[in-house]
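For the sake of transparency, this paper describes our internal protein records without simplification. The tokens are whole numbers drawn from a learned vocabulary of local backbone shapes. One such record is reproduced below, unchanged from the form in which we store it.

. . .
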Amino acid sequence: MDKVNLGNTGIKISPIGLGTVKFGRNQGVKYPENFDLPDDKSLSDLLDTAKSLGINMLDTAPSYGLSERRLGNLLLGQRSDWIIVGKAGEEFEDGKSEYIFTPDHFKKSLERSLNRLKTDYIDVLLIHSDGRDMNILNNDDLIRTIHDFKDQGLVKAIGASTKTAEGGIKTLELMDVVMATYNTEYADEKPVLDYAAKHNKGVLLKKVLSSGHNINIYKALRFAYSHKGTSSVIIGTINLKHLKQNIITARNVLSTLHHQAE
């Protein structure tokens, strides 16, 4: 699977990334079926398969339960093989989310994430928005702090996982990368992708399969990749069969779109 540019960050990513919510959390998640957390052997096999099939990007967050800690152990000796997308702003404890958007919390959160992941840098750090995108992005002290992380080499690229078109565009005006929602059932954030395509900014798409509710994977991925603003899609799974199916489908869709463009 050919790597693509994540906007103008200089980071090369696979067109599909692996979401790791299910690596560490099975409470308060919006999936159609309940699930048990997989053991380390299952996750190791999943990561090995993903890498062998061309995936080099993993998406995690402090609010994903044990995800960061487990990745830190599973990726020992492999750090240079992976692009890690991390977050800050949301905490999840005792079945509830809490959002904290202060410079001090972000410093502590990043330090904790680096320790858990057993690394000295995160490739992409995103603000984990609670939906009040503009309120968060207008916090100059917070934005300055995140830029400082980049200047210090603690992160390579910065941005936000947003929930509104206005917030997504503002993110790309201020930073490098946005994680936006765009699928066959929800296209309200299309202006974010339009802006990204025009200004060479990075876009990671979440909920492309509507959190597992969309079973027409080909149609969903074709819709996502058809927009020139899309850099990559993040799809979470702990099912080896589903992982392979997602990657094969992504390859087929990208190949078809490439031939049609010629």
